[in-house]
């Protein structure tokens, strides 16, 4: 899909209701796995207020708890302490108000991509015709209208991931949760997907929480980056990304981008070294 392509007016209007919802409060949330001697604090008292329609990236070293925080917002994990609210209501489990996109597209291989995207609306009780109409609008938005009758295995990795994004948007979620969605793609496809995602976000305006290891990706996409410490995961810095929008790949060469990158890289390097030291200590303890 060209970054310049606009969402059709009808699709944008039907999805645009998301813009009034999606405010997230993460209030002193800790997530502890195991019990007794096996207790492990994965996430330690993290707090953040995320505005409706904001694009936030979680950036941190491997194993620091990024996915755990995201899974808690999704409702797959429950805080051991603290609370997460979405538009004032405590998150107690997964819901159609939060769409998820993972590193692997996890599409149903036996269904066409239209049927994959229509699946969520069908589960929510929409008629087949309504669900197919929603799917067709979203496939047009992600540039895959011509492939609606294809099965996932006939598409490239990038196309499958665009289908996964369309599927995540099919229930008009107010929040889009993305866990390293472009991590398995080659650099060129990844860059194009980032531009496509920003276009979709500008049109639909869900709140986005996007997990990544990649500093450039975080800066390119985000309004704000929450940097996490090595395990146990804490939010150690909040970096506003006040670069103008719309953004394109050229801006990654500009001094303002480089300045934010320098700041993030210093923090991530320190935390990654700590993570390595922790892993070495754990290995030594096992010997
Ligand atoms: N269900 C679980 N039970 C026990 N430990 C878990 C569970 N889920 C995650 N962990 C541990 O919690 C820590 C944080 O994991 P998490 O996957 O959130 O990290 P991450 O920052 O997303 O890592 P990566 O960037 O490598 O994907 C890790 O040490 C992980 O092994």
Automatic annotation (TrEMBL):
Residues 24-255 form the ABC transporter domain. The keyword Transport applies. Gene3D superfamilies: P-loop containing nucleotide triphosphate hydrolases. One of its GO terms (molecular function) is ATP binding. PANTHER family: ALIPHATIC SULFONATES IMPORT ATP-BINDING PROTEIN SSUB, TAURINE IMPORT ATP-BINDING PROTEIN-RELATED. Keywords: ATP-binding, Nucleotide-binding, Transport. This is ABC transporter. It comes from Lutibaculum baratangense AMV1. Belongs to the ABC transporter superfamily. SUPFAM superfamilies: P-loop containing nucleoside triphosphate hydrolases.
């Amino acid at each position: 899909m060209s970054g310049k392509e606009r969402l059709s007016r009808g699709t944008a209007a039907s999805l645009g209701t998301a813009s009034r919802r999606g405010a997230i409060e993460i209030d002193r949330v800790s997530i502890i796995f195991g019990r007794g001697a096996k207790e492990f604090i994965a996430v330690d008292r993290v707090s953040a207020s995320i505005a409706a329609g904001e694009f936030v990236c979680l950036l941190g070293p491997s194993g620091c708890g990024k996915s755990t925080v995201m899974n808690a917002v999704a409702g797959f994990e429950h805080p051991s302490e603290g609370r997460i609210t979405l538009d004032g209501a405590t998150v107690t489990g997964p819901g159609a108000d939060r769409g998820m996109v993972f590193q692997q597209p996890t599409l149903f291989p036996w269904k066409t991509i239209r049927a994959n995207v229509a699946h969520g609306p069908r589960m929510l009780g929409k008629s087949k015709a309504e669900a197919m109409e929603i799917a067709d609008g979203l496939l047009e938005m992600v540039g895959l209208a011509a492939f609606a009758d294809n099965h996932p295995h006939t598409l490239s990795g990038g196309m499958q991931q665009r289908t996964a994004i369309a599927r995540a948007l099919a229930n008009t979620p107010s929040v889009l949760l993305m866990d390293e969605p472009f991590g398995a793609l080659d650099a060129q496809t990844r860059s194009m997907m980032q531009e496509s995602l920003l276009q979709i976000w500008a049109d639909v305006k869900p709140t986005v929480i996007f997990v990544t290891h990649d500093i450039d990706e975080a800066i390119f996409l985000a309004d704000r980056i929450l940097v996490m410490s090595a395990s146990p995961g804490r939010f150690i810095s909040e970096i506003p990304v006040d670069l103008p929008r719309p953004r394109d790949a050229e801006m990654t060469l500009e001094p303002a981008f480089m300045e934010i990158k320098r700041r993030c890289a210093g923090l991530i390097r320190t935390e990654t070294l700590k993570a390595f030291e922790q892993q070495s200590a754990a290995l030594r303890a096992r010997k």
